[in-house]
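Worked example 4.2. Below are the chains of a multi-component assembly; read each line carefully before continuing.
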Amino acid sequence: MSGEQYAVLAYVVGVGLVAAYSARLLVMHRGLRREERRTAGELAPRDAPVGLGSLRVESPVRVDVRRAGEAAGRSAHV
Amino acid sequence: MRRIRTIIWPTYWATTWALVVIGLALVAWYAPVEREMGPVQKVFYFHLPVATIAFVACFTVFAASAAYLWQRARVWDQLAHAAAEVSVLFASVVLLTGMVWAREAWGYWWTWSPRLTFSLVLWLLYVVYLVIRPSIESEQRRAVVCAVYGVVAFLDVPLVYFSTKMMPDIHPSSISLEPAMRQTALFWFAPVGMICVGLIWARFRLLRRSERLSMPAGGGIGRPIGGAL
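Applying the procedure described above to all two chains together yields the following structure tokens:
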């Protein structure tokens, strides 16, 4: 490599690292912003069922894990 | 606060990155090629400001840690945490750009000279700071341990700075520069300083916001500045 290429490499590595960290902070900011909006009630809670409002579960659903496992042809461990 | 988010903050970052672009243009076309080292000397214009500003970031960790031990206010612990991350980032950039320069100038990537060794120790000290933080569960205990560590870790900064003056070292201790070279080097302090301040502030704000989110309604885990001990 020539001296010029080493100089370019140094700038790419240096500025690139700073840009990568800035991007990381931006991603964290967006995640937090989403979480803040969710807490403020602007968004549906994270564990809300899909299609809330149109699909409504009237009673809790029970799943027999053992039977489901046996049906799948293997023993189930809970 | 909304104005900071929508106007001042984007303007700040746009200015910073515009200065980085101008700085790169100065390096490419304004600063002359050094006679002995050739084009690789141009790494210096970025390497020197980042190394100097890294000391400022380390000093922020030190000052915020000392302030925490004095006031026991959580904001100081969060500021120290934010500055420690930026210290690691800047120390990494210093080490990597220095290694690239050394490969061309000296013929090898690394040598255990006093300046390089103390710089590596500095980087390790702040990496360890970030590693020990999540390993302590109690928030109060974590803040105290990290504050003491943050104060002690800063002791390596004078060692890095004075190493070339006190000990025989292959690393250059002072360089005579032509006016165009000096102007380019001085110019780079502006964007690098702005990046440092901006990143510390951004990370600090993120830590404050995530703490506010995790707080139970109507209660807090920290004490405001100036609260009774």
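Take a moment to check your reading of the output against the notes. Chain A touches chain B through 23 residues (CB under 8 Å). Chain A has two helices and no strands.
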